[in-house]
Amino acid sequence: MTEPNPINPPNAGRINPGRRQLLIRGAKAAASIAAAGGLAYWLYDREGPKAGIEAEKLVTLPDFSVPHKEGQVISIVQGEDRIKTVNKAIDLLGGIERFVNEGDIVAIKPNVAFASPPILGATTNPDVIAAVIRLCYERGKAKKVIVLDNPINDPASCFTISGIGKAATAAGAEVVMPKENLFGHTTLEAGTLIKNWPVLYEPLAKVNKLIGIAPVKDHHRSGASMSMKNWYGLLGGRRNIFHQDINTIIAELAMMAKPTLVVLDGTVTMMSNGPTGGSVSDLKKTNTMIASCDMVATDAFGCSLLGLKPDNLPYLSLAQKAGAGNADYESLKPLRAELT
Amino acid sequence: MKITTVRRISQVFFFVLFLWFCIVATVGDKFWQIRNWPVNWFLQLDPLVAIGTILSTQTLYWPLLWALVTIVITIIFGRFFCSWLCPFGSIHHFVGYLANRKRKVTEKIQLNRYRKAQSLKYLVLFFFLGMAALPSLASSLQTGLLDPIPLVTRSFNLILLPILDNGTYLTSVEARFYELGWLILAVFGTAVLLNLVIPRFYCRFVCPLGALFAILSRFSIWRIGKNKSECINCKLCEKACEGGCEPAGNIKIAECVLCFNCLNDCKHDLIAYQAVPSLAGETQADISRRGFVLSLASGVLAAPAIRLGGKITSNWYNKVIRPPGALAEEEFLKRCIKCGQCMRVCPTNVLQPAGIEGGLEGLWTPILNNRIGSSGCQLNCVACGQVCPTSAIRPITLDEKKGLGEFAEKGPIKLGTAFVDRNRCLPWSMDKPCIVCQENCPVSPKAIYTQEVFNTIRDGIVTVSAIEGRTIRTTENLPADRFGTGDYYILFGNGERHKIAANTDSSIEISSSGTFEKSASQGAKIEVQVRLQRPYIDLEKCIGCGVCEHECPVSGKRAIRVSAEGETRSMNRRLLLKG
After folding, report:
1. What is the DSSP letter of B206?
2. Are A272 and A93 in contact (CB under 8 A)?
3. How many angstroms separate the CA of residue B391 from the nearest CA in chain A?
4. What's the pTM?
5. pLDDT digit string, tens, across residues B214-244
6. How do residues A99-115 score in pLDDT, each as one tens digit?
7. Which residue of A has its CA nearest to B433?
């Protein structure tokens, strides 16, 4: 056995393995230092986090409205049969063809706020929704119809118990649940309340027509919940704080949403205990269906079903002032019909 | 096909079935969502659930009759459940295999030897049975803490599926939250990770259900054993032994989980599943009389010891709000196995696993937390009672919940009562209109009603400088554009009050509704008032559903909160004089 020679190792003459390893280690160390430095340079943030909670990207809901036609702004049809009255009301405005064209993708926004059965009238009646969906497909030649809302109660329960989910699906529409990733933040430039607020944007960015269908309901805070208040269901977040200034928020909702058409179903009106109701004794037959391109006019007329005057609803004048519509609906010469 | 292959197919099949039942236990109109799926089947097959509730209630709740099937099969064939059906067992089996597959054969044999500590699980079983056994003293069903079927059900329902779901929204629209979920995960995770130390650690040392099966299989007709007393003693049969029962020698028959690996691994066909005891000898479960007596007695004493806190009697905690149909607290604790089915199915996610606020024994039992989820307890929903496997929450109908039809005389089921916190409520303490609670109250007529008041706002007493038509000019500066929202009024000296339509920094325009005559002259003081509707609770109408609490815009500590006083399941907690 020979002792290893520390001074002249066996492979002397070639590169000293000690030095070789040193070089390798040195190269690796240099690469590590370069990587660490590079990473530090890449991630270097001189500013630090910014104050404020602004969303990175703000969205704006598209304008879905169709060109104005004098004398064809609002129609009011009397009758018990919702399906007949809603068809007639839309026909009076020039038919669904005026609003929905071949290949259109239509979003329908009913009021699905509560997990309450249709008979209690706290949500939009599923028959009206189905009738409008059918019109969109059959006469409007729509490519696709979606139905969406961000309810107050649990969304899945609301769509199920209200019967809206089933009716919409049966009529060939797709129900879009308000999943959290479908919201975008919006700011209403002309408003004071809707600032950087989550709104059910993603599905609406993919459609080119928007139809609101709302019931007529008593609402203790604002007086009445109709087609303007229906857009509350597009908001996300802890939207209840807006109740501190209910009239302004309803007016701003009417400015934010620019629908193609609104339908206000006053076949049955929730006269008391609104907007949840909970008993058929809260309801009254009022046998009226309204279709309109002007939701301020619609609600100005609609409140009469609750025994109210437009003056009782400050949000109507606020919305009119902001240019969202005309509260003097008679000046628009409503088209009227009575079905028996 | 090898018997171990059949076993693996069975394990995968039942694990997938279990997972499927967890996934479908949600309310909705998707085809796969709950539609008479037997989502409780694994819990019903679990004899520890049946025996536990029999001890605590002296009855066998009918769906738990399934446990008899398991018991009969176990008595005849042994612990088939552990290696063929138990989803938790399958997880341990798989993880134990993964963790130790690269070890040497000798190491594996060493790893899978029998250990004296395996008899600990019997003590766990007797302790829990002891807690449930003496209703005259105090009977508390705590088997669910470690019973593998409730444990794994709870872990998937409340932790694993929600974690998956919160990124993908596959089975829920909104993210699901479960308070104290970390503790459930910690127990589950610890049990699973212990396989890295010893395969099937949980099954061998802890599992009270396995202990029960071990006892039940004492007289099993078929059993694993050697068909010859002599062999070369290679011990290959012990290298993958799941139970740690040492089939090579004197087999610890109670520990055998019927994995059949030994049958496969013996190269000489000396091991068989046979109707005679092993020719190399057999040892029964290692349960000492002392261990049995001490663990049982500890359990018997533990239940009343926990009750000394008075948490189900005078010292009950008002935030322990039970779901609709829940039995009175004492009866409830005799049945709840903490499986989390109610919390999984609850469409609003309001049902939460409790901590120890209702006493140690209330851990992971369902309580309502109205701050979590999409909407308090929905009026038209009875899902939790429909899935409860032990009827700790009775399967009530909507009529019973709402007090309709034949239940009209009894009235609705109340979970508690809402209380307005007037120090936090916007209209009560901040002069801000709100009444979101009233709007969302689902009862008809509403349990929340309001009274209208007009409060003069801060710096609201101003001096009239001129009146022109409906416009009043003021001497003092006003905050511009603030009073035209429909909520502000002017009170004149003569008591007349008029709504404000708009204002600038020096003038106020009176709304055109109502007649306005000159009610004040120059120099007169007028008051700017805000109209408030202040919420009140009607004790007789409130059902404690918590929708108001959920919706209250004072989002930290809510300005309206449900407290369990007035819940109809308990006579002691009622608030009303009548009813």
Report:
1. I
2. no
3. 23
4. 0.90
5. 999 998 999 999 998 888 889 999 999 999 9
6. 999 999 999 999 999 99
7. A244
**Contact residues on chain B for A166, CB-CB shorter than 8 A:** 29
**Cβ contact, residue pair B29, A156, below 8 Å:** yes
Distance from CA of B28 to the nearest CA of A (A): 6
Contact B285, B218 (CB under 8 A): yes
How far, in whole angstroms, is CA B84 from its chain's centroid?
28
> Taking Cα atoms as reference points, which of A336, A340, A339 lies closest to residue A73?
A336
> Most A CBs within 10 Å: which of B434, B449, B457, B560, as the mutation test of the A interface?
B434
CB B551 to CB A240 under 8 A? yes
Mean pLDDT value across chain B: 93
Residues composing chain A: 340
Per CB-CB distance under 8 Å, the chain A contacts of B487 are 245-247
ipTM associated with this complex: 0.86
| A15: pLDDT strictly greater than 70 | no
Rounded distance, CA B199 to CA A309, Å?
77
Which B residues in the span 185-244 are in contact with A, Cβ-Cβ below 8 Å? none
Residue A266: pLDDT band with limits 50, 70, 90: very high
- pLDDT tens digits, one per residue of A146-189: 999 999 999 989 999 999 999 999 999 999 999 888 999 999 99
Task: Give mean pLDDT, residues B372-399.
Answer: 94
C-beta atoms of A156 and B347 within 8 A: yes
pLDDT, greater one: B417 or B573: B417
Query: What was the pLDDT predicted at A10?
Result: 58
Sheet holding A184-186, edge to edge: A58-59, A184-186, A197-199
Chain A residue with the nearest C-alpha to that of B425? A244
* Mean pLDDT calculated for residue range B571-577: 83
How is residue A93 annotated by DSSP? T
Token pair 């609406």: residue:
A204
Share of chain B above pLDDT 90, in %: 82
Among the partner-chain residues A157, A276, A312, the one whose CB lies closest to the CB of B27 is A157
| Contact (CB<8Å) A278/B379 | yes
User: Token match 């998937």: residue?
Assistant: B156
State phi, psi for B534 to the nearest 5 degrees: -100, 130
b (16+ CB within 10 A) / e for A275-312: bbbbeeebbbebbbbbbbbbbbbbbbbbbbbbeeebbe
User: Which residues of A are less than 8 Å from B442 in CB distance?
Assistant: 114, 116, 276, 278
Domain boundary assignment for chain A: 14-47, 58-338
Superfamily for domain range A58-338:
LarA, N-terminal domain (3.40.50.11440)
Domains located in chain B, CATH noted? 3-283 (no CATH), 329-415 (3.30.70), 450-534 (2.40.30)
A108-122, A243-257, B29-43: segment of lowest average pLDDT? B29-43
Q: What one-character DSSP code corresponds to residue B430?
A: I
Which residues in chain B are closer than 8 Å to A316, comparing Cβ atoms?
none
Taking the Cβ of residue B345 and every Cβ of chain A, the question of whether any pair is shorter than 8 Å is answered with no
On whether the CB atoms of residues B71 and B216 are closer than 8 A, the answer is: yes
Nearest Cβ partner for B347 among A157, A177, A219: A157
Q: Which residues on chain B are in Cβ contact (under 8 Å) with A281?
A: 444
Is the CB of residue B339 less than 8 Å away from at least one CB of chain A?
no
User: What φ, ψ does residue B268 adopt, rounded to 5°?
Assistant: -115, 10
Interface test with A, best of B439, B515, B558 (most A CBs within 10 A): B439
